[in-house]
């Protein structure tokens, strides 16, 4: 089999390995505490898969279309809270709750996107940040005791099928998370190679040129905004089933920033890069917390122990280092290595090389803001 | 009537706090095109620097000149950290704005986490000068003195910034750089020195806002800077991204709307109405209240 064939088959091979993982009793010392199919490890892996999917939905906006939304947390949070309220307060079945949440997952980004997309660049980022902040404030204010405020909201287990409840069924939740990731991956692969996907990438490169071609960027941007929002909402439902409740942590701006870190870490504009970034970030966030509480770290001198006790310090530092030294994240690094080995540019079936995406966004973000709003010539870049 | 007076002065005090945070953001964005997410971290550093100095620095304390010394120390630390970050992390990414923004995103996570690792996540009582804890009667309303301190500081900063931009050579370079950076560079002027200066000034304002925010709220916690930062972002966007006078006007608007709505509607409604205000302003005037630099 030639190398192109292997590359095309790679996602399928990874999928088969991931699907069969719960049957393995392999012990991975250092990486995981228990054997691979112990509930604790499976739960962590499932979380990694969910956030891989959510990160990919964010990459659809940021990496593929060049829309830097700071409010993606809102849709994820809507998924977990709306589904939770439908199950717990209304006493609906799981199917009905998912249907309702899906409707909200379309209506909410449609409403917000239609307002936010009237402005572009930093202003767009700010409107999305502000609207997401509304969601966070509402959840924390706990109107009518519905959202549980800072305590979060446990889900009523009665309407949920038994197969998705309890520690013994962690394996089913793992497969659910995997199914969600596969769904997002397939949808994103399909839409980015469709006609609309080409237009999104063209919008990222040069929005004005798209306009000149007689297309209306607004409609295409709204479409991708709604799709990404819907995919994140579905991720919220899976997260709810996985955790057995909703936490206000997922409503904050920090959560969106986390998604941004995942995508940039893995490589913006690359599908597998974004997924890997999400998986890696979630894994590190969880494992570094364990590391901080381990005796090995507790015994260290204070100047070493203090920074090591905060996973976010290590993740933030890692992120800064990646931005400084590894433009394009992991996917960019891999592309570079492959390029060097082959001595030429790789065949660009994924659009531009992942590492270039962030650079291409540069002009977009400064355009359409208060700084001379388009009248200013681009500063000799 | 007394309620209205109290709400107005308190709203203006909040506006002063927003202005201090937002003016630094606005200057940095205007000149460098960088939306500085680490600004909230500078605020936290300033607040904790002041708090630490009041307890540990000889001569500093919570009363009189001792407190002034503590604030000076906090602001100095914030300024220093900002300058070092500009030189070591922002400057190497010259002309790569998205990466610069991303670096500040990473810093905002790392710096706040570091503060939390050292002093814990719980709020710490802030050393408030006795004078600031008393009240003054204005038109029958008992207004806490710290509100006046905040408003006075913000006015001094506003006047100082405007004078600096208008009457000094560096100010001229900054104004020109905001308008057309490539032309300034073509004239043989190194804009990068102005970048470092503006970033340090922004850090100083944020640190000052941290110290004053500690007085206003009575306690400090690591996450405080980030929550204030979101409102400062809103103020900057409403004000028109790079205009100092626009930022000041927007801060007053946002501060008053938030206070009055929080009191007359319900707590939390004020925060929501500020977001609504942002949406309305952006839909009516996409480039903010003022589209031109002050």
TrEMBL record, chain A:
Annotated Gene Ontology cellular components are: plasma membrane
Mode of membrane association: Multi-pass membrane protein
Q: Which residues form a coiled coil?
A: none
Q: Where in the cell is it found?
A: Cell membrane
PANTHER family reported for this sequence? ABC TRANSPORTER ATP-BINDING PROTEIN (PTHR30482:SF17), HIGH-AFFINITY BRANCHED-CHAIN AMINO ACID TRANSPORT SYSTEM PERMEASE (PTHR30482)
What GO terms are given for molecular function? branched-chain amino acid transmembrane transporter activity
Q: What is this protein called?
A: Branched-chain amino acid transport system permease protein
Any idea which UniProt keywords this protein has?
Cell membrane, Membrane, Transmembrane, Transmembrane helix
Name the Pfam families for this protein. Answer: BPD_transp_2 (PF02653)
Q: Which residues cross the membrane?
A: 42-62, 67-87, 93-117, 174-192, 222-243, 255-284, 312-335
Principal place where this protein is found? membrane
UniProtKB/TrEMBL annotation, chain B:
- Signal peptide per UniProt: none
What name does the UniProt record give this protein? Amino acid/amide ABC transporter membrane protein 1 (HAAT family)
A Pfam family cross-referenced in the UniProt record is: BPD_transp_2
Localization per record = Cell membrane
Q: Which UniProt keywords apply?
A: Amino-acid transport, Cell membrane, Membrane, Transmembrane, Transmembrane helix, Transport
GO MF, one example = transmembrane transporter activity
Q: Does the keyword Transmembrane apply?
A: yes
Task: Kindly give the InterPro entries that the UniProt entry links to this protein.
Answer: ABC_transp_permease, BCAA_transport_permease
The species is Blastococcus colisei
Q: Which family does it belong to?
A: Belongs to the binding-protein-dependent transport system permease family. LivHM subfamily.
User: In terms of one coarse class, where is the protein primarily found?
Assistant: membrane
The way it spans or sits in the membrane comes to: Multi-pass membrane protein
Q: Name one GO biological process term.
A: amino acid transport
- Record's keyword annotation contains ATP-binding: no
- Cellular component terms per the entry's GO annotation: plasma membrane
Transmembrane stretches, start-end = 6-27, 34-53, 65-89, 101-119, 148-174, 194-217, 229-256, 263-284
């Amino acid at each position: 089999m030639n190398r192109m064939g292997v590359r095309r088959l790679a996602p399928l091979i990874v999928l088969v390995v991931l699907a069969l993982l719960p049957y393995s009793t392999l012990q991975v010392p250092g990486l995981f505490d228990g054997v691979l199919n112990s509930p604790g490890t499976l739960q962590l892996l499932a979380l990694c898969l969910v956030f891989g999917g959510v990160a990919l939905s964010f990459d659809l906006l940021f990496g593929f279309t060049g829309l830097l939304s700071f409010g993606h947390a809102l849709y994820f949070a809507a998924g977990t809270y709306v589904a939770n309220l439908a199950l717990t307060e209304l006493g609906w079945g799981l199917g009905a709750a998912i249907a309702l949440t899906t409707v909200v997952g379309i209506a909410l980004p449609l409403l917000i996107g239609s307002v936010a997309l009237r402005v572009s660049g930093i202003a767009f980022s700010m409107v999305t940040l502000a609207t997401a902040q509304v969601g966070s404030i509402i959840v924390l204010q706990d109107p009518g005791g519905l959202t549980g405020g800072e305590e979060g909201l446990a889900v009523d287990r009665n309407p949920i099928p038994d197969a998705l409840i309890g520690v013994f069924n962690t394996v089913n939740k793992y497969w659910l998370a995997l199914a969600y990731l596969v769904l997002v991956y397939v949808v994103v692969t399909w839409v980015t190679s469709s006609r609309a996907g080409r237009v999104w990438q063209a919008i990222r490169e040069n929005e004005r040129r798209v306009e000149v071609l007689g297309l209306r960027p607004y409609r295409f941007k709204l479409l991708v905004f709604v799709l990404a929002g819907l995919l994140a909402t579905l991720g919220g439902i899976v997260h709810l089933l996985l955790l057995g409740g909703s936490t206000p942590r997922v409503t904050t701006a920090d959560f969106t920033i986390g998604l941004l870190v995942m995508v940039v870490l893995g490589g913006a504009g690359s599908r597998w890069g974004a997924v890997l970034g999400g998986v890696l970030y979630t894994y590190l966030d969880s494992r570094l917390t364990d590391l901080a509480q381990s005796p090995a770290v507790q015994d260290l001198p204070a100047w070493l122990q203090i920074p090591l006790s905060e996973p976010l310090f290590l993740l933030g530092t890692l992120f800064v280092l990646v931005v400084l030294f590894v433009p394009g994240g992991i996917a960019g690094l891999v592309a570079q290595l492959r390029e060097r080995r082959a001595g030429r540019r790789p065949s660009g079936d994924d659009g531009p090389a992942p590492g270039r995406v962030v650079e291409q966004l540069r002009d977009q973000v400064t355009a359409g803001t208060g700084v001379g709003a388009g009248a200013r010539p681009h500063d000799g870049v | 009537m007394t309620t209205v007076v109290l709400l107005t002065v308190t709203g203006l005090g909040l506006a002063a706090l927003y202005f201090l945070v937002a003016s630094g953001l606005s200057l940095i964005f205007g000149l460098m095109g960088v939306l500085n997410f680490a600004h909230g971290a500078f605020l936290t550093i300033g607040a904790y620097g002041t708090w630490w100095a009041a307890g540990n620095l000889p001569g500093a304390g919570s009363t009189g000149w001792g407190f002034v010394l503590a604030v000076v120390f906090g602001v100095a630390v914030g300024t220093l950290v900002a300058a070092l970050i500009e030189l070591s992390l922002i400057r190497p990414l010259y002309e790569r704005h998205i990466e610069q923004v991303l670096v500040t995103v990473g810093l905002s996570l790392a710096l706040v986490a570091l503060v939390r690792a050292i002093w814990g996540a719980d709020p710490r009582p802030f050393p408030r000068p006795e004078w600031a804890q008393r009240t003054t009667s204005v038109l029958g309303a008992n207004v806490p003195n710290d509100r006046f301190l905040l408003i006075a500081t913000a006015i001094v900063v506003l006047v100082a910034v405007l004078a600096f931009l208008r009457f000094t050579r560096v100010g001229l370079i900054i104004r020109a750089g905001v308008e057309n950076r490539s032309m300034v560079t073509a004239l043989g002027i190194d804009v990068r020195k102005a970048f470092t200066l503006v970033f340090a000034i922004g850090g100083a304002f944020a640190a000052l806002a941290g110290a004053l925010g500690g007085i206003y709220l009575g306690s400090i916690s690591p996450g405080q800077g980030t929550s204030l930062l979101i409102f400062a972002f809103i103020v900057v966007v409403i004000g028109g991204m790079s205009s100092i006078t626009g930022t000041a006007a927007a801060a007053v608007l946002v501060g008053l709307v938030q206070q009055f709505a929080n009191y007359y509607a319900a707590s939390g409604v004020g925060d929501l109405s500020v977001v609504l205000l942002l949406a309305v302003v952006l839909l009516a005037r996409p480039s903010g209240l003022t589209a031109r630099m002050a």
